[in-house]
Specification:
Order of helices and strands: HHHHEEHH
Number of strands: 2
Largest sheet: 2 strands, antiparallel
Shape: globular
Helix content: 40-55%
Distance between the termini: 21 Å
Structural class: mainly alpha
Strand order of the largest sheet: 1-2
Oligomer: single chain
Strand content: under 5%
Length: 175
């Protein structure tokens, strides 16, 4: 079994990965794992200090351990902190779309997996011209991963039924 690194080990992972229709909504349902929890404001993501940005590191942990909806939410907070435009925002939007593909795989929705993964790949390629790496990740590798997810959407979504155990076929590693 692959040993998946933790980049923010001081924050525990949630007790379940939210999949619409299978679990209580984490925030709006009183039974949700984050109901009533106030998340700290997202610190803007900076190339010089990403290794100390707890929300970014925790989002990677969430994604790598199959908490796709939760990773999406964390990256979305960082996207807002980035002003929702520019290279950093596009990079984060690519991660958001990749996490959304994971949610769609768990929902059993192949078309959603493909659509989100393809858009993630486009976003990673769009920022690749400025730099080969962003925030500890190689953009080419991210785009390849997104493309692979899109190409295997039907296999990832299985028979179209929801399943909280489905995982995307790679993890995100910081260099």
């Amino acid at each position: 079994m692959l040993d998946i690194p933790r980049y923010c080990p001081e924050r525990p992972l949630p007790p379940y990965s939210y999949v619409p229709g299978l679990n209580p909504h984490p925030i709006s349902d009183p039974l949700g794992h984050s109901f009533g929890v106030q998340e700290p404001a997202a610190e803007p993501l900076e190339e010089s200090s990403f290794r100390s940005n707890a929300m970014y590191l925790y989002a990677i942990d969430l994604f790598n351990h199959g908490f796709y909806w939760e990773a999406h939410e964390a990256w979305e907070a960082l996207w807002h902190a980035a002003g929702r435009t520019g290279a950093t925002a596009d990079f984060l939007k690519g991660l958001i779309k990749l996490a959304a593909a994971g949610v769609k795989a768990r929902e059993g929705r192949a078309a959603g997996v493909r659509q989100h993964a393809e858009r993630a790949g486009e976003l990673f390629r769009s920022v690749e011209v400025a730099s080969k790496r962003m925030f500890g990740m190689r953009l080419e590798k991210l785009a390849e991963f997104a493309n692979a997810v899109g190409r295997t959407a039907e296999a990832l979504a299985k028979d179209g039924t929801a399943c909280a155990k489905r995982k995307l076929p790679a993890i995100l590693l910081l260099d």
